[in-house]
Amino acid sequence: MSAIEIGPIVLGWDRFAALAALLVFVIAAEIIARISRQPALSAWSARAVLWGLVGARLGHVVQYPDVFLAEPWTVFAVWQGGFSPVGAALAVGVVTALSLRRGLALVHAFGALWLGGMLWLVLILDFSDRPPVPAPQLQLVMLDGADFDFTDRPAQPLVVNLWATWCPPCRRELPMLAELAEAHPEVTFLLASQGEDAETVRAHLNRAEISDAHMALDPSGELARHYGTIGLPVTLFLGADGVLEHVHVGEISRALMLRQITALTR
Question: pTM higher than 0.85, yes or no?
Fold first, then answer.
């Protein structure tokens, strides 16, 4: 399982782990603050979360200046993902240092951080310890009529995007994915429409002026079943050996795509 479904909301496991850890951290800090009668701890935890998120995002942005300078509005597209642990740690460190001068008890603060951090570590390790997922024994038809066989493909990394024409986030990211597919021939791209026929997909591509290169049809949703994914869009990153390396649930940014492509090809 690469995601968790909470009512109508689908979260990737990494995002769920981060949100759960933040929630536990804030609750633990509030409980400790009340028991120890340390109001400074409660105020610190709120500032640590706020500025930690800001620092995490800015830390990611400065890693990809060319991407964000070309599309500065995407700095605020936090739903696409993209956060730097180093940026978050630096921001929380500064907030903590300033709060120590205002009476923050470091031992109590560390206790709340430890609880949140341990929960995050347990959830992430639980996901990372799961057995590797090989490529499926599957053949798909490309929109141009050719066949794509997972067992007989070029020996190079593979990016698989699961999308549909009725999905707004899918439609937003599809032009960028098609562009990156052309710009990175060292990686095979498979943009697989889920549960739709060729006429529906072709009509959307024509309206959006997107090439049908790399476009595949998966009318029965075989890829989603094989990888156990929930919701759309989902982007899967496979190594040259066909083993799943990373899953991104939800809309993905250009910066995260470039980061994962670099990780696959180094």
Answer: yes
